[in-house]
Amino acid sequence: ATMLTDAADLVIQGDGKFEELMVCSHEISASTAQLVAASRVKAGKNSTKLKTLQSASRNVNGATAKVVASTNAGRRQLDEVSESLEGLASVT
């Protein structure tokens, strides 16, 4: 999670890459899935803690998907602004 916030800070400051932010999001999602899979092996079928973990995992997946979607939207928006500015610069 620290890597995700560090990557987000760098992107906001203009020193990071959008791809790094998306990779961090995917890594968090994958790590969470791995944790749930390992827990499934050790926990009983009716474990309430496992059900809570699975619910939390779904929330993590939803949150990381939103980070990726927001990152893509932000990147597209910056690309559009850059193209507009380039168009204005070529007119003058």
UniProtKB/TrEMBL annotation:
InterPro entries assigned to the protein according to its UniProt record, in alphabetical order: I/LWEQ_dom_sf, ILWEQ_dom, Sla2_fam
Source organism, top-level taxon: Eukaryota
Cited PANTHER family: HUNTINGTIN INTERACTING PROTEIN 1
GO biological process: endocytosis
Domain I/LWEQ: start-end pairs: 1-92
Keyword entries, A-Z: Cytoplasm
Gene Ontology MF term list: actin binding; clathrin binding
Compartments where found: Cytoplasm
Presence of the UniProt keyword Hydrolase in the record: no
Annotated Pfam families: I_LWEQ
PROSITE patterns: I_LWEQ (PS50945)
Protein name, entry field: Huntingtin interacting protein 1-like
Organism: Ciona intestinalis
